Amino acid sequence: MTQGFYAQRLSHPGAVLAPMAGYSDAPMRQLAAEQGARWTVSEMISARGLVLGNEGPDLNLGRPYSGETQRVVQLFGAEPDILAEGARRALSWFGAAAIDLNMGCPVPKVKGRGGACLLQTPELACTLIGAMRAAVDVDVSAKIRLGWDSMRAVEVAQGLEAAGAALITVHGRTSAQRYNGEADWDAIAQVAASVQIPVVGSGDVKTLDTLRQRQRSGVAAVMVGRGAVGNPWLFAQAAGLRAETDVPNDFERAAAALRHVALNTEWYGERRGLIQMRKVLPQYFPHHPQWRESLVSLDTLEDVQHTLERLLASSGTPPVTHTPAPSFATRYDQVRS
Ligand SMILES: Cc1cc2nc3c(=O)[nH]c(=O)nc-3n(C[C@H](O)[C@H](O)[C@H](O)COP(=O)(O)O)c2cc1C
């Protein structure tokens, strides 16, 4: 039997980029993959939309960037036939390396149609996994929370394993908690110890120290979401491709931010691409909160360049590269061309 995608990627070191609606789009996935992410996960995609909507292979949420390979497509839904067909389409249209079932989204949009609601009906979740498995010949996985409003993840994970899930990701909060409180990594470890399949842990990993600590908690891999926004270097450090002490300076941050802008405008077009970047740009400069206001209101590529130049000048950053990143000007030329 050939080794599945997850088993193959788990033989490499590093961290996993979390699915994040509004963030883990093609540009962010590309930056994470270039820095050595073990794999990346798409934003959640409605299986109904793929099967019954007008969507096709050109759907931005699903379509891969040129050359993308290690990308899992996440689907949400609650109907076995729809998820089976959705999985087939995610595979043929988007070239998914594996298909993940969303069992963690608490937002109203998903209520009654899957997401974290499935934690209340684990038997339905198992039927969904079985239907998806029968439909595609790639790994099928699920991403769960600890439970709806109390810890139920061990029972849910064991059921999903029996249904044929190749891997389970656990976000260490209940659905009722949404994003409040701290992720419970003891509970994640409990789930990891209760099943044979690999368990990936998710929640509140923002620094390399925390990442290393969580890697020792019995999970097969650690997933990073919010902590990776504006910080793709975390993946390189986690994978051992960059020294842990090699903290990016402002110049490198500006070059990476510009590259993100370039990928975004290429993917979405200039106007939408820049609007999408407003929430991301300040995250590249967390230690310059005084620039936040300017960074969230940029309208044109010229604005981006001038603001970053002023930011660099104000921080007295010399134009040096201690990494192979092209120069700031070269990056800007790429954005412009
Ligand atoms: C803005 C945002 C969007 C998210 N979208 C998804 C999603 O589409 N699918 C999913 O399974 N989890 C989603 N999550 C949850 C994350 O994948 C992750 O489990 C959670 O944020 C905890 O990890 P973190 O502290 O590293 O961000 C989202 C989280 C955020 C903050």
Structure in words:
This protein has 14 helices and 9 strands. It is an alpha/beta fold and 337 residues long. The chain folds into 2 domains: 5-238, Aldolase class I (TIM Barrel, Alpha-Beta Barrel), CATH 3.20.20; 250-336, no CATH class. Strands 1, 2, 3, 4, 5, 6, 7, 8 and 9 form a 9-stranded parallel beta sheet that branches. Strand 7 (167-171), helix 7 and strand 8 (199-202) form a beta-alpha-beta unit. Helix 5 packs parallel to helix 6. The termini are far apart. Residues 319-337 have low confidence and may be disordered. The site of flavin mononucleotide has 22 residues, from loops. Residues 18-23, 43-44, 74, 102, 104-105, 143, 171, 202-205, 224-227 line the site of flavin mononucleotide. Keywords: Flavoprotein, FMN, NADP, Nucleotide-binding, Oxidoreductase, RNA-binding, tRNA processing, tRNA-binding. Its EC number is 1.3.1.-. It is an enzyme of class 1 (oxidoreductase). It holds the Pfam family Dus.
What is the correct CATH architecture of the largest domain?
Alpha-Beta Barrel
- How many whole angstroms does the radius of gyration measure? 20 Å
Q: Tell me the name of the CATH class of the largest domain.
A: Alpha Beta
Mean pLDDT over the full residue set: 92
Q: Report the CATH topology name of the largest domain.
A: TIM Barrel
What's the helix count? 14
Number of separate strands: 9
Main sheet summary: 9 strands, parallel
* Count of individual domains: 2
The H-and-E topology, N to C, reads as HEHEEHEHEHEHEHEHEHHHHHH
Bound molecules: flavin mononucleotide
Organism: Deinococcus ruber
Catalytic activity: a 5,6-dihydrouridine in tRNA + NAD(+) = a uridine in tRNA + NADH + H(+); a 5,6-dihydrouridine in tRNA + NADP(+) = a uridine in tRNA + NADPH + H(+)
Active site: 105 (proton donor)
Pfam families: Dus
